[in-house]
């Protein structure tokens, strides 16, 4: 079974029934990851898509031990035989998780237990997650950040975190979009 096939099956088995909206979101994030394939080697693209469909697995009620889904999900995945270390790292650190971990008093645990993946893949994971609605549709960064703030409300931990992370989210998306534009320009310039 390929890494991607395994990731989809595990994500569906874990999220689809208890959290159908979350399952829709991760499928949308994975579709965004497939759109970024031209930016990466075959192996990196596979790692990104697998991480995309698994990034919110820590929300599953059966896995939520700390209440911080990147850490809970990465710990669960680390114990899976077929899990790829790089996928686990992307899940652990997706979408500026270190900032939220800090808000929760879990930064040391997250940093100690899980390495950061290469910046290009971290940026791509942020881009995919933060341009996908909770229902799995494509959206803008601005709309997604606003939706998160509205969902959690003023003064809540996640709202504080997302406000701190917003400049980094925009910067990561800008880097991904610049790489996409450069890739398209090269493709157009190549003779047929």
TrEMBL record:
Biological source species: Streptomyces smaragdinus
Domain HD: start-end pairs: 22-104
Domain of life of the organism encoding this protein: Bacteria
Pfam families: HD
Name of protein: HD domain-containing protein
InterPro entries: HD/PDEase_dom, HD_domain
